Write the structure tokens for this entry.
Amino acid sequence: MTTREERQKAIIHAGYNTFLLRSRDVYVDLLTDSGTSAMSDRQWSGMMLGDESYAGSENFYHLEAAIQKYYGYRYIVPTHQGRGAENIISKIMIKPGDIVPGNMYFTTTRLHQELAGGTFVDIIIDEAHDSQSEHPFKGNVNLEKLESLIKVYGAKKIPYISLATSVNMAGGQPISLENIRGLRKLTHQYGIKIIHDMTRVAENAYFIKMRETGYRNKSIRSIVKEICSLTDGATMSAKKDALVNIGGFLALNDKSLYEEASNLVVIYEGLHTYGGLAGRDMEAMAIGITESVDDNHIRARVGQVEYLGNKLLDAKIPIVKPIGGHGIFLDAKKFVPHLKQIQFPAQSLAAEIYLDSGVRTMERGIVSAGRNKDTDDHYYPELELVRLTIPRRVYTQAHMDVVAESVQEVFTNRKKIKGLKMVYEPKYLRFFQARFQKIK
Ligand code: P70
């Protein structure tokens, strides 16, 4: 624990960017659920069985078998984390001038698509951009939007659909199986592939089980497998669903694409049987995948997120509805309506919550959205959010109570919150390292 004076110093030193705080100055860390979950006794035991051979490690084959068994993809290339897989798939499949439609952008994913010469186009349903819409599947693709895009550009210009389960930037919102099936049908007609960002697929499966007709009695395991079966390949940041501190992979069903990927991985990550990971990391991932599709685990995990969300809803705090799978997202436009978007309301609110209690959160608004690569203007996203992300198997409900009390305290004093100006802006993924000052 720290005093308010200590936190004041720390946040100024961090340029009002919670990514630049030292973790020792943080009390409850809700920056991200990425790599921050607690590994189980089984995963730690698996770490002791690391086969650290350069090539053909036993642990690679365990990982490959787990991916084939639970996700059903045929070929896999391990990578150090999700963005390593995004880099490889973008380089292989995207040509300059291509269009990559997807159900809302994700920061690293879109950047790799752009660096490969592509342009990302958002085809998520409109409800996803409205924090108050209670649509049960705000991650759904608007199939009409996609079809008109195909008609305008032609299927040849569209290498694949970038399809996320549990749409992060929309607030951890799920896509329905019905929608994925519709998408599969449409893309088959035009010969377009679907590459699945399966970072939080098990959390998405939980919402399908609870909300989609006909799935209440299906296991998370079977729903996950069904989702994957409707896509052609996947990128995975195993630091989320799969419960490891580091790791990821690219999975593909097409052999020739796999051959290209296993060739590229040796340039950027490491040999195709370790991809930047230690053998022990791959073992922990294989075990984490198995644990991640357990019905009881996923119910407890999403249940804890709902616990915090319901507390905030009871206190009339504006959050994204319905409550998502991996965190609670405060609607900064409604929380601090006196700030203009260019005064970085969500960035400022995240700093304010830290100041109040040492709870660390993350901006997911205009800073995260970055600039349009053609015009160089800021994107002004409809959603200006602060994310309170819950690591898996780490915190107790008592921690959630502390968080809820702090957010309420800040809400009570919200009129006093000032805006920020950006004083340092890095070229890529600026939210990680940008620095700000308070507007007087
Ligand atoms: C987060 C993390 C990572 C992520 C993701 C989805 C849906 C790919 C990745 C990349 C970490 C993060 C990343 C960028 C900005 C802020 C935070 N999300 N797809 O906290 O995976 O990090 O392993 O390279 O959520 O949401 P990786």
In short: The longest helix spans residues 295-314. The chain is about 40% helix and 15% strand.
